[in-house]
Design brief:
The chain is built from 6 helices and no strands. It has helices at residues 2-9, 17-20, 27-36, 46-175, 178-307, 311-322.
């Protein structure tokens, strides 16, 4: 009976919790427990030793009577902040989504500018290669024309030299005797043949050099054209690759954004359902507790009536006990 009385005295109701579970708020209860166990039993007797054990157990029970409602109060406090945490998270996620949506035109513009810059660079490279190719073709054309003019000049000089040699031989033929004239003519013929042979060799050499130069120029032109075409293809391929990568990146970002929005919606819905379940569970718990208390009170009422009280007296007694107005007596629900 003593233990029951102690526990009833230390009972903390839910409405008392905010005022008690604060710094030093439980000092009065702690002092009350100290006063209840302020004894010095005789340890030399079995009764004294049993009393010490009983007092220690009483302290543990009193501790539990104070701690348990405190833990329940703390649990309610933690549950109370969950909606605030959820709302803060929803706000932050919404701001992040809004930030991405606001920046999307800039992101798309930057991607478009990068694509334009890449295409422009490729076009400038193609034009540079074409200009080099045209310059090489023009240089080759001028060289061929210069070599042709030089060959014409050499032919004219040969004609003039031959005419002068023939005139000189004719003068010597007139001046000298018939024999000398014959020798002069023969010598002129030999010299003319030798000169002709030398000129043919020189012309053949020039022709070969011109041909080699032309072939080299054509080979260089073909190589330049092939290089230009290859570089143009490579630039086009790079441009296409960059454009494809940009499209793929944009598509990935779009899918990721959609997935993120979907996850946010699912999380919000899960939070809403969890909150609705929590409210429903708390309501069901309150209804169940109410029904349980009603059943206990009705049983107590029946017991009082069976003990000889009137129904009205029994109701008054139960009400007084439930309110804590009866010393050392309480209803255990």
């Amino acid at each position: 009976m003593s233990e029951t009385t102690d526990l009833a005295v230390l009972e903390i109701k839910p409405e008392q919790a905010p005022a008690l579970y604060v710094p030093n708020g439980l000092d009065a209860y702690l002092e009350q427990i100290r006063q209840q166990v302020n004894e010095v039993p005789d340890l030399s007797t079995a009764k004294g030793r049993a009393r010490v054990a009983s007092l220690a157990a009483q302290v543990s029970r009193s501790k539990t009577a104070i701690e348990k409602p405190g833990r329940e109060y703390l649990k309610r406090l933690k549950e109370a902040v969950k909606p605030a945490e959820g709302e803060i998270k929803r706000f932050v996620d919404s701001c992040d989504a809004l930030r991405d949506e606001v920046r999307r035109p800039l992101t798309e513009w930057e991607a478009e500018q990068e694509r334009i810059a890449t295409e422009k660079a490729a076009e400038e490279e193609r034009q540079r290669i074409e200009a080099e190719q045209r310059a090489a073709e023009e240089s080759l054309k001028k060289q061929i024309e210069a070599d042709h003019d030089y060959a014409l000049l050499l032919n004219e000089k040969f004609d003039r030299d031959a005419a002068e040699a023939k005139a000189e031989a004719e003068r010597k033929r007139i001046a000298y005797e018939e024999e000398l004239q014959r020798q002069a003519v023969e010598k002129a013929r030999i010299e003319a043949e030798q000169a002709t042979a030398r000129e043919r060799e020189a012309a053949a050499k020039r022709e070969a050099e011109l041909k080699a130069a032309k072939e080299k120029a054509e080979a260089d032109a073909r190589a330049a054209q092939e290089r230009a075409e290859r570089e143009a293809r490579e630039a086009q391929e790079r441009t296409a690759k960059l454009a494809q990568e940009a499209r793929e990146q944009a598509e990935r970002e779009k899918r990721e954004a959609i997935a993120a929005e979907r996850r946010k919606a699912e999380q919000a819905e899960a939070a809403r359902l969890a909150e609705a379940k929590r409210i429903a569970d708390e309501q069901a718990a309150r209804e169940a507790d109410k029904e349980h208390r009603k059943a206990v009170n009705n049983k107590a009422l029946a017991d009082f009536v069976a003990a000889g009280l009137t129904e009205e007296q029994a109701k008054l007694a139960i009400t007084a006990i439930a309110k804590g107005e009866v010393t050392a007596i309480r209803i255990t629900y």
